[in-house]
UniProtKB/TrEMBL annotation:
It comes from the Eukaryota. This is 6-phosphogluconate dehydrogenase NADP-binding domain-containing protein. Residues 9-128 form the 6-phosphogluconate dehydrogenase NADP-binding domain. The keyword Oxidoreductase applies. SUPFAM superfamilies: 6-phosphogluconate dehydrogenase C-terminal domain-like, NAD(P)-binding Rossmann-fold domains. It holds the Pfam family NAD_binding_2. The keyword Oxidoreductase applies. It comes from Purpureocillium lilacinum. Gene3D superfamilies: N-(1-d-carboxylethyl)-l-norvaline Dehydrogenase, domain 2, NAD(P)-binding Rossmann-like Domain. Belongs to the HIBADH-related family. NP60 subfamily.
Amino acid sequence: MPSDKLPRVAWLGLGNIGLAVCKNLAKYGPTNGPVTVWNRTHQKAADLAAESDAFVAATDLADVVSSSDIICLCLVDDAAVAQVLDDAIRATSVKGKLFVDFSTVHPDTAAAQADKLPRHGAEYLASPSEYKGRHTTTTMNVADGLLQNTVFGGVPLAVDRLITLVLAGSAQAIEQFTPFTDGVICKSTILLVDEPCEQASLLKLIGNFIRFSTIEVLCEASVLSEKLGMGQETLSKFVEALIPGPAAGQLRMLNSGSYHSEKKPMIPISMAVKENNHLNDLAQRNGVKLKTLETVTHHTNSVTAKRGADANLLAIYGSIREDSGLPFEN
């Protein structure tokens, strides 16, 4: 397809996973010219643009939106998503634009954006940083809304395009974005065609609840093994044989001590605290008791109180060690 028929793409938000996915989108995706990057801390966008001519940094949000057909968001929290989209709507016309949201937000936030953008002629596609979809490329010229997009896999898998995406939104919006998914920014996609955008956020929260719960069990099992005098190597062999993949890798990271030695963790504890709060809210509103979530929340809150919001997510291992009479550091 001629390059002038391809969509112009912008990326808003250059955190750890946003940066990784954005780089792959620019390198492998069918875009019309360089990807325009914007970040609230502009220096991150400027540094990325200085690395490669596949990117151009922008400071003005209105210019970014007005000059792009597809606008991807990967922002820190619900307030940031709502603020950026409100600012875009006030500053320029969003008619015919497709907004693809990779941010992890409360389903209520996703629903609010999916309701708001079509009233201004745009569309919202949900894909909270852990899922999504793919197909053919044409410049967006009709009101189609928002795609909510969820990403499962973490930063290392995102770098290697091995994450799984979940896309929720209209069939038209999903078709518009699918050329950028499988083989471009992800390994596979779960498509929720014509499903409410908040379904992607729900799946993200439930999926990460399973993920965090697995980490909790690995930490507890590791502490139990140590207290009972069984070598960590023995437990590692069992995990690698029975539940290989992310679980085995996480156990190796626990044993390495990276949970307390990394100065700048890829996954800060604040991410888990935010998602735990969202899930606790949904569970309470729907009369569901989640005892495992209560335990995970206790440990994430404990780490935050003692180590700060930028502590490593895996530092819950240290908290569990302390509860069992062991030092925080292994």
